[in-house]
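Subject: sequence -> structure tokens, single chain

Hey, anyone have a minute? Need the predicted structure for the following. Not urgent.
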Amino acid sequence: MNKAFSNPIILAVDTSSIEEAEKLVVNLRDYIGGIKIGMEFFNSYGPAGVSSIEKFGVPIFLDLKLHDIPATVYKTVSTLLKLNPAIINVHASGGKEMMLEASRALKDSNNKDTKLIAVTILTSLDNDDLEDIGFSDTSDALVLQLAQLAKDSGLDGIVCSAKEISLIREKIGNNFLLVVPGIRLEENNHNDQKRTMTPKEALLEGADLLVIGRPITQSEDQIASAKKILDQIE
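Reply:
Had a minute. Here:
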């Protein structure tokens, strides 16, 4: 586990309401290891919004999935590092040169704590979706290829689905951060996620951090749901 996180649960705060985001963090910060701030929140409030959440002392995964030309990604990562997030991510499909520039931005900064990771294949996609896009390989093969590319580019880890964890551990090893979304409790439906797994199963496979949103945030009793997940994984 990343040392910044007290437990593996990263709460996905996917909202455009700063009041709702702050309420979630205040109510749940004793039961989660960190929070994920995505594009919906960041596009609404920008860096000031991140600072408003940072004041609660919970590690932040800044989930902006950067994907642009290398020079732009270098400048953007350099700017985002000033917010001191625990994790920033880019899209591995942006290519090796883009990821090398992201890594260089981290090395050129005074920030020694932020981890830089790459999104591989979104957990909302399955093999049929990949075929529609034009990929001939399976999700497993593509995730492994992108994971290796991210490691070769100097990144600290990847975002992948739980279904690829054991493959990544076997081929790339344990010294590589695996952040896993698409986590669902057994009784939950999968919503728009297709490659899912329960929290306990994902950790047993070798996940480091689990991104969990709706099973907690859309629960009638958010604290009870978070406690239940903690009980399962402990």
